[in-house]
Amino acid sequence: MRRTGALALLGAIAHGSLAASESLPRGVGPEFVKFFESKTTFTCIGNPSITLKASQVNDNSCDCPDGSDEPGTAACANIDPLSPEQPLPGSVTGTTNTTAALPGFWCANAGHVGSYLPFMYVNDGVCDYELCCDGSDENTHVGGVQCENRCDAIGKEYRRLEEQRRQNKERSAKKRRTLVKESRELRRRVEVKIANLKTEVRDLDAKKAEMQAKFDEVERSERGKVVKSEGQGGKLGVLVGLAKSRVNELRNTLDKVMDQRDDLQDKVDQLEDILTKLKEEYNPNFNDEGVKAAVKAWEDYAAGQPSEPKGDLADSDIMEVLKDDSETSGINWAEFETGEASDVDVVYNWEAYLPVPVRDYVHQKLNLLRVWAIENGILADNPTSGGESRLVTAAREARDSATNAHSVKLGQLEEEQRELEKDYGPDDVFRALKGKCISGEAGEYDYELCWFDKTTQKSKKGHGNTNMGNFVRIDKEFVDEEERLDGKGLGKGQRLVLRYENGQGCWNGPNRRTDVYLGCAETDEVWRTVEAEKCVYRMEVGSPAACEDVQEPDVPIKSEL
Ligand code: MAN
């Protein structure tokens, strides 16, 4: 048998189609039957001005310029230099640039699938079973060759493989449907997330506006405050002021009491000296009862005095108390003097004594008036030494944190929206594969494909990994490749191609990139990876996601096997 796989003239007509009738000349394909119906004459198909006798058809002599008078011989293949150009071996369509009217010798292949054979293989002494399983191409038995009809067996095997392919396709399509379902669910989840995020963003937006309004209000109201005392504020401030002056008062009094005590002590000392002298120097022989009573009383007084001064309050302690308050001694009043000014309003502000609704209204109007007065230089602004009051700081912080929370949520929302709008291929099917990875080896590397993420070249020798590109988009390309027996091939037709670009820079070259060609398969698998040119990689990958959807058949196909 001749190996004609690559030489096939694709004229295959579905099994069971019109077969050439008995009376037709040999080798006439079904679509040309009408040109050969006359029993007496034949008109060249491409040259209708030339009419031949019917006996000139298949007489092994090429009479028509387009070769149409020799459908069943090789006479017009290339034996006659005047013959028109013939279909070229390897031609896919069978026509190329030739002006030949017929695509080849028609093998009816009853029991299998009819097909055209290049004329040069007709009666060349070789049975071309791949295209001509009925053996009709060798009717002159050149060199004694006998080509038996093998269409039963070949047709049966063909149908078995066809059925297998159909079942594979069906299983793959089923898996694809599962992926589509998963993708739909993932999409739905993203949509729910987006809806929730939209609500959260709306709420946060309102909160942000509220906090901004509060901040504006507090800032204006704080600016509007009139300075009431030495920069102190709040109930605590008032109390501190009172306490401080009371403590100063007590300290001054203590100071005075201490002076008085010292004066009195001096006087006591002087009197004690006088009495001590009297006791020592009086003359007991004078019977002066008054002096004697005085000396006796002094002696009793002196005996009742303690040897050490009474009390545990040392003068040094009192001196410590009398020292002025400062950061390092006594009370550090400054610590208590920076309190909020807001509450002091309650003490000083007559608004506080109004009913709440009236107060709010008046407060608002008064604030406007205050701000106006400040802006017009009538009232003084009252920033604290730190620049702004704690109330304003707190309002600012609340506003900033609301703004921040809003922008974080908005970022999340935009991210999810981008995710939803991303192209995940027909029916969104690849959404279910996102983030999953598969790999396959080739030469000294393992090649990994992470769907919609990146491709990686991993050295088997343990050298580092190399990024071969990051996913950018899905394209479509027409491919024309021979079918593989194991089914792990792209075949012929439009195929999805995932582009991965901007990978690791190639030494003295561009950044690496990968084109991932997708073919239909039951499981995700990297079939092969090649470096098509330096640092440009081509991966061929099978996946159910790349299959066309075929509906599940209602009636199972009857097996002819
Ligand atoms: C590494 C691999 C190869 C690539 C060269 C380029 O060896 O990434 O695929 O061709 O670098 O220098």
Structural write-up:
The protein is of the alpha+beta class. It is about 35% helix and about 15% strand. The radius of gyration is 56 Å and the shape is rod-shaped. A hairpin with a 7-residue loop joins strand 2 and strand 3 (about 50-55). Strands 6-7-8-9-10-11-13-12 form an 8-stranded mixed β-sheet, with no helix packed on it. It binds alpha-D-mannopyranose. Alpha-D-mannopyranose (MAN) binds next to loops. Alpha-D-mannopyranose binds near residues 457, 507, 531 and 535. This is Glucosidase 2 subunit beta. It holds the Pfam family PRKCSH-like. Keywords: Coiled coil, Disulfide bond, Endoplasmic reticulum, Signal.
What descriptors fit this protein?
about 550 residues, alpha+beta, 8-stranded mixed sheet, 3-stranded antiparallel sheet, 8 helices, disordered N terminus, disordered C terminus, binds alpha-D-mannopyranose
Strand content: 15-25%
The structural class is alpha+beta
- How much helical structure, as a percent, in the residues? 25-40%
Instruction: Calculate the mean pLDDT score and round it.
Output: 82
Poorly predicted regions are: 3-21, 79-84, 86-98, 226-231, 341-348, 552-561
Largest sheet: number of strands, sense, barrel closure: 8 strands, mixed
End-to-end Cα distance, whole Å, is 24 Å
Discrete helix count: 8
Counted beta strands: 13
Q: Radius of gyration, rounded?
A: 56 Å
Name every ligand kind in the structure. alpha-D-mannopyranose
- Along the chain, the helix and strand elements come as EEEEEHHHHHHHHEEEEEEEE
Q: How do the strands line up in the largest sheet? A: 6-7-8-9-10-11-13-12
Shape: rod-shaped
